[in-house]
Structure formats: structure tokens, C-alpha cells
Amino acid sequence: TQLHEFIKSLPKAELHLHIEGSLEPEQMFEMARRNGIALPYSTVDDIRTAYAFGNLQEFLDLYYAGMSVLQTRQDFYDLTYAYLQRIHADNCRHVEIFFDAQAHTERGIAFADVIEGILNALEQGEADFGITSHLILSFLRHLSEEDAFKTLEQAEPYYDRLLGVGLDSSEMGHPPSKFERVFAKSNALGLKLFAHAGEEGPPIYVYEALDILKVDRIDHGNRSLEDDALVNRLVSEGMTLTVCPLSNLKLCVVDDLKNHPLKTMLDLGLAVTVNSDDPSYFGGYINDNYIRIADALDLSKDDIVKLVKNGFDGAYMSDARKCEVM
Ligand code: ADE
Ligand code: ZN
């Protein structure tokens, strides 16, 4: 349709993307083959069939298992470069990427191999596709505060190449307050702060992300809608929420895209953006997310423009770069 073409034509920014969640089944087989790793699947179709999740944890179990094929610096490079190549086709011009360092270091992979593979691909992607990018070190919240501190220390040689730190993995039972001190330390180092909150967790987790962690963006934030005072605050602070429609559908945060709160959020004046989260696992990259949610909620051209603009406003880009792409 005309709206689909409009969406495809617009330059976009993506602010919520886990690079390990862009690992396509074909790539998983290729890396398993070259690294001599046995997979519990015999075909690409087997993998896609297995991607049926009842909640966040069911997804995370397959996500952490899948990424075990990532072994070498070249693997991290190839993973990242393939993602950039793919979003170039979606006219995505700027991306801020999370990586789950602990999910690799706990398997014995060197931190340097992970981050240098990713950073080298980001650099090459800017040269080849003109996509600007930032990298965010995301702490796994099911692991300890001490483990997060250790990971922040490992990142020391790269502080000037990191935009910030994030917080992801199993939300329930792991409130933001568990990471107060490591976020304070990250802040003191000049790093920006991001946290997943209100995906499955209650509104109080969003308050904690704001008040205790002092985050610069909220990832997801859907359940903020249960608390009017919280909504008013997020609106008045202009806090960016990185919403992920197809992720919410696949993880049963919503039962149907027609019941997704994105349009309500927009109409309330929340600074919502559209993102893909883990595109390989959730069945779509950034344009698919825009198109599917636009169709389900009957979004207008103005809604789409607002969402795209929110993406650039919520991004860490120079004004000059914004002028160049928008
Ligand atoms: N890790 C990767 N994707 C995630 C998500 N949507 N929520 C929490 N942790 C994640
Ligand atoms: Zn996420």
C-alpha cells in the first residue's frame, strides 16, 4: 500500500536492538559448522518452528542457547555486519545497539573479541552504508551486581567507544534497584544509562529505573500505562520509550497487535519509538515493525512521521547529523 511505501521511504533510527537477537538461523548453522558446534536443530525451518514463546523467559532460554555459536571475533563481526546490511535495505540511518557481554564471557569468550568484532563491523558499516551507530554494554539482570561490576571493569579500554550501559534479561524478580551502584559508577564514568523496564515488570520497576538508576531512556515501558501519575511524569520529562511491537506480540506482552498500546501512548504524548528488539527471533526488522503496527492500529501518515521523529529525537546524534539524514 501507499503507507507501506511511505514507511519504507523514510529515513529511520533504531534505538532498541540486541545484536545477538539479529542472529539469523542460516547464520547460526554456518557458524555452528565452522566452529564445530552441534545444534539441537536439523534445519532452518526447525529453528523457526521452535521460535514460539509464551513469555520473556521462554525466549531468553533459546536466545542464550542460540548465541553459543558465536565464538570468534570474526563471528561477532559477521553478525553485526549482516544486521547493518539488512537495515540498510530498510533505510535505517542510525542505530544504537545493545550487546550482552556476559552471555559470551561466561562461555569463555574474551571480552575483547566480542567488542572488537562488533566495533569493527560498525565502523565498516558506516563506511559502506552510511549508517551511524553507538554501542551499549547491557548488564544481564539475572546475574549479580558483582558480575555487572566485573563486566564494567573489563570494558575499561573501550569506555570512549561505548555510548552507555543497559539492563536486560529476565525482568521479574530483578528490579532496577539491584543495580543502583553499578549504574552510579557508569554515570560517573560519563556513560549514558538505559534500562528495560515495564516489559513484563510492574510500574514500580519503571519508577526505579527513573529515580534510582537515573536512566536516559526506558526500554519498552508498556506497563507504565497502568499508572496515570507515571504516564504524566514520562510525558512531562519527554522520556523516550523504545517500544518493540513484534517483540511484544511474540512474547505475549500483547495478545494481538490490534490491542497494542502504541497508539494510546502516542495520543497521551509519550515519546514512543518503534524498534525491532531481536528481529531474527520476533519475525521482523524495523520496517516490518512499522508496517505491522501501522496496519493493526490503522496509524496515519502523521502518526508514522511522529514515531520516526521521536526515534531521531531520542537518539544520540549531533544536530548536524540529524539535519543530514532527516
Ligand atoms: N534480551 C534480549 N531481548 C530482550 C528483551 N526483550 N527483554 C529482556 N531482555 C532481552
Ligand atoms: Zn530488548
TrEMBL record:
**SUPFAM superfamilies linked:** Metallo-dependent hydrolases
Q: Which reaction does it catalyse?
A: adenine + H2O + H(+) = hypoxanthine + NH4(+)
Q: Which residues constitute the catalytic centre?
A: 199
What keywords are annotated for this sequence in UniProt?
A: Hydrolase, Metal-binding, Nucleotide metabolism, Zinc
Q: Where does substrate bind?
A: 278
Q: Which organism is it from?
A: Algimonas arctica
The entry's protein name is: Adenine deaminase
- Look up the record and give one Gene Ontology term from the biological process aspect: adenine catabolic process
Annotated ranges, domain Adenosine deaminase: 11-326
- Superkingdom classification of source: Bacteria
Q: Where is this site: Important for catalytic activity?
A: 220
Q: Does the keyword Metal-binding apply?
A: yes
EC assignment: 3.5.4.2
Q: Which GO terms describe its cellular component?
A: cytosol
- Which positions in this protein are listed as binding Zn(2+)? 16, 18, 196, 277
Role description: Catalyzes the hydrolytic deamination of adenine to hypoxanthine. Plays an important role in the purine salvage pathway and in nitrogen catabolism.
What is a single molecular function from GO for this protein? zinc ion binding
Any binding details for the cofactor?
Binds 1 zinc ion per subunit.
Which Pfam family, any one of them, does this sequence belong to?
A: A_deaminase
Family named by the database record: Belongs to the metallo-dependent hydrolases superfamily. Adenosine and AMP deaminases family. Adenine deaminase type 2 subfamily.
The UniProt entry, under InterPro entries, shows: A_deaminase_dom, ADE, Ado/ade_deaminase, Metal_Hydrolase
Q: Which cofactor does it need?
A: Zn(2+)
